[in-house]
Amino acid sequence: MNTAITSAEALRAGELLALRPLVRLVTEIDDNGPIPPRRLGATLPDLSTLQLRTASDTARAHDLVQVAPGAGLELTQSGLELADLYDAMARWARRHAIPAPVCDFSSRIRYVLGLLAPTLTGERADSSCPLNGAGEAGLARLRVLLIQWLADNPQVARGPEREPVA
Prior knowledge:
Layout: H1 7-17, H2 20-32, H3 40-43, H4 49-61, E1 65-68, E2 72-75, H5 77-95, H6 105-116, H7 134-152, H8 154-158
Helix pairs in contact: 2-4, 2-5, 5-6, 5-7
């Protein structure tokens, strides 16, 4: 199996995984359980109807959530693993007070993915981490976890499978 990721795929994966509505949807379900589709707006009131629909559609297309009859949107195994990765990224960023000492969860995820995405191809394995020592070691560990997650979920970097148009 070829797990090499191109620069374009790394950029696409970083952008997709850093989408604030997607981060909010995945982490909300992880923290509080399935969300009935009709309750998305009440559960995530800071997101517009378009953002909710886009996040839900994107998450389903990339096999991060599924609709469970009687329960609503729930995380798939890939979604659960992504939620764990998000948590690890946020903990690292909070520990190092980046991008700021006080900021929201999504901003921390977006910042860490911004650091990691350019390093995913192997063409540039060094990171432009603003820290040294333990900070860089922690970021390197997150890079390994992200690369493994992407290898297990190639649909995120390459896009969901689409049926040919007749």
